[in-house]
Design goal:
about 210 residues; alpha/beta; Rossmann fold; 2 domains; 6-stranded parallel sheet; 6 strands; elongated
Length: about 210
């Protein structure tokens, strides 16, 4: 925790800032990425005990744009350097899936208290297991960006299910076109509607 912080204040670091710095001539995908990144960080500004203190991106222009948007004074182009120099309590990881595992493990070993990582968890089952095992070993809280379960339509559906208004849940069928994108949201919602109950059996296929 930073010397400037007092009490239970949390120092928050973020790395992998995507396309935030690309404004001139940006295409729709880049503009969407910029809006998404900003919307992801806005809630931290509303928490009185949370301060964004550092960010990292391999593209310095992106890091500087992000820092200017959120009043961050320290930027890095190497996340490992940020982890070494900053005493962070929470880290947010916003990179491509194949990079998640090593970054999560490095952050956990650096002594952070919690890590919030973009979904999907990783690009392989082995990498996902390593992330979970290391965070559990070190007592680090590891969460992922599956926010849809907090959306009003899904909360309403869950309430109706819990009330018995739409009958008893006997089976869940889900489908999605991209496992690494919105597909992980769908799997998370299946667990949400099922009260996180471990399945007795699962059948699946990939075309």
């Amino acid at each position: 925790m930073r010397d400037e912080l007092r009490g239970d204040d949390e120092g928050w670091g973020s790395f992998g800032l995507g396309s935030l710095g690309l404004e001139s001539g940006a295409n729709d995908l880049v503009r969407w990425a910029m809006r998404w990144l900003i919307s992801m960080r806005k809630p931290t500004r509303k928490l009185p005990d949370c301060e964004l203190v550092a960010c990292a991106d391999i593209v310095e222009e992106n890091a500087r744009a992000f820092a200017e948007t959120f009043g961050i004074t320290r930027i890095y182009t190497d996340y490992r350097e940020m982890l070494e120099k900053e005493q962070l309590d929470i880290v947010s990881i916003c990179t491509w899936p194949h990079l998640h595992a090593q970054m999560v493990i490095d952050a956990a070993r650096a002594g952070v208290k919690a890590i919030h990582c973009e979904k999907p968890m990783a690009d392989t089952w082995g990498a996902a297991k390593r992330m979970a095992e290391e965070c559990e070993r070190l007592g680090v809280k590891l969460t992922f960006n599956h926010q849809r379960r907090f959306g009003t339509p899904f909360r309403k559906a869950k309430a109706l299910l819990d009330e018995g208004a739409i009958g008893e849940l006997l089976r869940i069928e889900i489908g999605f076109g991209n496992l690494y994108d919105y597909g992980s949201h769908t799997v998370d919602l299946a667990n949400y509607f099922n009260n996180e109950t471990p399945a007795e059996w699962v059948i699946a296929q990939i075309d």
